[in-house]
Every structure is written in C-alpha cells, then in structure tokens.
Amino acid sequence: MTVNEMTNEQDVVEPAEGSASDEADASRGRSGAETEGAIETASAADDELASRSAQKVREGLVVSDKMDKTAVVAVVDRVRHAKYNKFVLRTKRLYAHDESNDVHVGDRVRVMETRPLSKSKRWRITEVLERAK
C-alpha cells in the first residue's frame, strides 16, 4: 500500500456548519451578526488602546512653575529593590510643557510623553487632576 492509497482510504472529516462557539453564542441568545459586531468593537478598542499606549502617561505633583511655559513635575514610583525585595520610592523630576501657564506648585497633574521640545523638556501637561489648596 502506498502513501497515496492510504490518504484516499482515510475518511476526511469536515467541520460541521455550526462550530462550538456559534452554538455557545446561540445558547446565550446571540445571533451571528451580534457576535461579529462585538468582535469588531473589541478590535477597534484594542487598536485605540495600542495607539495611546505608544506614549507614556504619568501622574505627579508640580514642584516648580517659575519658568515660562514649563513646569517641573515630580513623579513618584514604587519599585522593588533588586537585592532586598523591599519597595523603595523613586522620585523623578520631569520638565513638562505648560502652554497656558495655568498650573502652580502643589497641583496634581497628568503628563504625557511628547517629542523633544527643548534640551530637557520631553513631556507635556494634559490635564490638571487636583488644584493646590
């Protein structure tokens, strides 16, 4: 018996018209059009999230607003120490662009990464989360 004869003798099993996922959706009361729409919506949301995640977003406290159109934002991160496995607070000072000079010391702001605007300024303020009292 040759290889060709063996493949001819074996029964070819084709999948049924309705798959298991279609049956599960039917048992939940969904039609095929509804499930396809849900898939398209989820992929659109994933695409939007992927495009937004290209730029980093941080939250921090404004520690200086003395420069024109620039604010210094202190961002505190909790990182685990490599040797002692204890959490340590790391503070990073970011220079952020503030077009309207409307943030002041003590404001909690959200900053987003952007193209280089000056020698040290690579962030811009997107929104003020909380004003200083």
Question: Secondary structure elements and their pairing?
Answer:
Layout: H1 3-9, H2 20-27, H3 32-52, E1 57-64, E2 70-80, E3 87-97, E4 108-113, E5 121-130
Parallel strand pairs: 3-5
Antiparallel strand pairs: 1-2, 1-4, 2-3, 4-5
Describe the fold and architecture:
The protein has 133 residues and is an alpha+beta fold. It contains three helices and five strands. It has helices at 3-9, 20-27, 32-52, and strands at 57-64, 70-80, 87-97, 108-113, 121-130. Strands 1-2-3-5-4 form a five-stranded mixed β-barrel. A hairpin with a 6-residue loop joins strand 2 (70-80) and strand 3. The longest helix is centred in the N-terminal third of the chain and has 21 residues, at 32-52. The radius of gyration is 28 Å and the shape is globular. It starts with a helix and ends with a strand. 8% of the residues are buried.
Count of helical stretches: 3
- Overall shape: globular
Q: Helix share of residues?
A: 25-40%
Biggest β-sheet strands, sense, barrel: 5 strands, mixed, barrel
- Distance between the amino and carboxyl termini: 89 Å
- The total of beta strands comes to 5
Query: Which runs of at least 5 residues are low in confidence (pLDDT < 50)?
Result: 38-43
Radius of gyration using CA atoms only: 28 Å
What is the residue-mean pLDDT, rounded to a whole number? 79
Strands in their spatial order, largest beta sheet: 1-2-3-5-4
**Structural class, from secondary structure content?**
alpha+beta
Taken as a percent bin, the fraction of beta residues is 25-35%
Order of helices and strands: HHHEEEEE
